[in-house]
């Protein structure tokens, strides 16, 4: 389905009229509760092969007067369970549409955040609605990694149920943990990926297999070398590309892979 038709479809499906998706150049933007929303993508790289394997999507937010806001400030506007579900799903729909718009040359998986409040607000069938959205965009749960802030995870059984439902539907889970990662939490949530803010936090030595570790903030060759030495498989940072409206290409228009063999983009 053409992008313009998808925009009309999703706008019509929002019967409450709380949000509006609209084309913005070659991309899609959204207007919600006085906020302008856009997608930014940062490449995720297989550190061993120096090959782009996916993109992490983040939210770019501006107020009506153009002032930049943090995604956290945008989520703070959501005062009810219903509003958090709507807004969180809107953001992930926006990212899916913008990822779809680049499928001629951007492959791999799409890593998108899902808010812990959303997990608690939805009662059952977690991931079903987003799966229907993805299918409209020519994607599937297997193309998606759901990024979860573990610092917002409690011992609430509803969270375990929600994440188990997502896994059953084929979504992979990435756990963003900035404190000590314990074995009990890994057993409970069963992520495919653990996201690290820095090497050694949490300890990356005694990790269960086949868990993948992903390091943010690889901004220079020294950090890349240290990440490889620590056995970290995935990474993102300014060395590979800053967040941008356009994905870094993974193949040409004929869908032939041409990932650079080096993070600098220079072929030896």
The portion of residues assigned to helices is 25-40%
Tell me the radius of gyration.
18 Å
Mean pLDDT metric? 86
SSE sequence, one letter per element: HEEEEEHHEHHEHEHEEHE
Strand elements, count:
11
- The largest sheet has its strands arranged as 3-4-6-7-8-9-10-11
CATH level 4 superfamily of the domain at 40-58 and 81-236: EAL domain
- Euclidean distance between termini CA atoms: 40 Å
Q: Report the total helices.
A: 8
Any low-confidence stretches, pLDDT <50, length ≥5?
A: 260-268
Basic shape: globular
Task: Please write the CATH class name of the domain at 40-58 and 81-236.
Answer: Alpha Beta
Percent of residues in β-strands: 25-35%
CATH architecture of the domain at 40-58 and 81-236: Alpha-Beta Barrel
In CATH, the topology of the domain at 40-58 and 81-236 is named: TIM Barrel
Structural class, from secondary structure content? Answer: alpha/beta
Q: Can you summarize the main beta sheet?
A: 8 strands, mixed, barrel
Description of the molecule:
Helix content is 30%, strand content 25%. The chain has an 8-stranded mixed barrel. The chain is globular and about 50 Å long. It has 8 helices and 11 strands. A hairpin with a 4-residue loop joins β4 (51-63) and β5 (68-69). Mean pLDDT is 86; it is low at 260-268. The chain has a domain at 40-58 and 81-236: Alpha-Beta Barrel (TIM Barrel), CATH 3.20.20. The chain is of the alpha/beta class and 268 residues long. It has helices at 3-13, 71-76, 81-100, 116-121, 128-136, 157-168, 183-189, 221-229; strands at 19-24, 27-32, 35-46, 51-63, 68-69, 109-113, 144-149, 172-176, 193-196, 212-216, 234-236.
